[in-house]
Amino acid sequence: MDASPHDAAAPRRRGRPSRTQTEAAPATRDRILDAAREEFSERGYEKTSVRGIAKAAGVDSALVHHYFGTKEQVFAAAIEVAFAPALAAPAAVDGPIDGVGERLTRFMFGIWENPTTRSPLLAILRSAFNNEAAATVFRRLLVAQLLRRIAQQLDLPDAELRAELAAAQLVGVAMLRYVIKLEPLASADVERIIERVAPVVQGHLTGS
Amino acid sequence: MDASPHDAAAPRRRGRPSRTQTEAAPATRDRILDAAREEFSERGYEKTSVRGIAKAAGVDSALVHHYFGTKEQVFAAAIEVAFAPALAAPAAVDGPIDGVGERLTRFMFGIWENPTTRSPLLAILRSAFNNEAAATVFRRLLVAQLLRRIAQQLDLPDAELRAELAAAQLVGVAMLRYVIKLEPLASADVERIIERVAPVVQGHLTGS
User: Fold this and answer.
1) How much is the pTM?
2) Which of A195, B73, B107, B186 counts the highest number of beta carbons within 10 A?
């Protein structure tokens, strides 16, 4: 335990100045979330423990429980942070209907091409792939925060299935390009990929 | 260690009659492979050990090394078994060019809709997603055994990128339908999905 928030005199990570517990609360919460994302990302859902997260954040386990609850709830909170950049995706559906495929595709690659926003998303995808509880949390968030909203914006028959098939194309490219790193896909210019993927997303979302 | 192949009198798993080591060799090799697939599938690549595989197969670790070599080599062998049903995919490219999307899509869903052939493939995908060494083995096999062959059959400019984008759509649907289990995709009739995915695969493979 490097620093307990109950012990303002203890050394803190990242050279933050020591404060009283009340003042430090938001910073401590963020530090726990950062630690959680890293732990889930490095160890996967199953091998990560609340205790390990607390240790990495330099706080007591009780404080992790206090801010977030169970491990599943810490995971859900970490997912929401990782998902935050993607939450604007439904807005990309707004505008002329025949440009929706390109807008959405461009928006997603904007997130994925930037390692800062890509890494947390891939970490979640990995966890969701390997653990039933993590998959449930991921599914709930993906559906509620993204796919259902996109489907509502579309307002077409089968809109949910359409949104999921479009997501399948996008997620599939992300997996093969950034995780499995298939060549030539992994090194291809992103504009070349957008050019080929955008019409597919358009077709799934609005085609006959 | 339940049964060592060096000890023909020891009880064997699955009620197989005891034989001399020479006679038992192919069965032992298969039993090790079965155990390896189960271990990799349940524990993931990192947590699986040659010792654990040997224990599950009821043999000595030395025998696993004798038949397969390192853990990475056992993994490669297990992948090849799981991949075997998919190896006929390039043959689906044969025939009239305007039906290639449907033939390939139908072929892949034929494998995925059957739990016996689906489970080993998903187990591999999980491992490849979580470990760099496993991803490398998977990538090598996927490229050499499937994508490059499909690309060669196509004989078009950018054939490799085309094959990878088609694979991205298929793999993405498999992930969201069978692993994340998004609804309505997970419960949708497979024919309805093929109807929407086949034209995309066709477009990637042969479109302008």
Assistant:
1) 0.79
2) B107
Whether residue A76 lies inside any domain: the answer is no
CB contact under 8 A, B176 and A171: yes
Question: What ipTM was estimated for this complex?
Answer: 0.78
pLDDT string in tens for chain B (208-residue length): 444 444 444 444 444 444 444 445 778 998 999 899 888 877 778 889 999 999 999 999 999 999 999 998 998 888 888 888 888 888 888 888 899 999 999 999 999 999 888 888 887 777 777 777 888 888 888 887 788 888 888 888 999 999 999 999 999 999 899 988 999 999 999 999 999 999 999 999 999 8
Encode burial over A24-57: b for 16+ CB neighbours within 10 A, e otherwise: beeebbebbbbbbbbbbbeebbbebebebbbbbb
A169–B200: do the CB atoms touch at under 8 Å? yes
Q: Are A65 and A87 found together in one domain? A: no
User: Distance (Å, rounded) from C-alpha A82 to C-alpha A178?
Assistant: 16
Identify the domain containing residue B26 by its residue range. Answer: 13-69
Do B126 and A125 lie within an 8 Å CB cutoff?
no
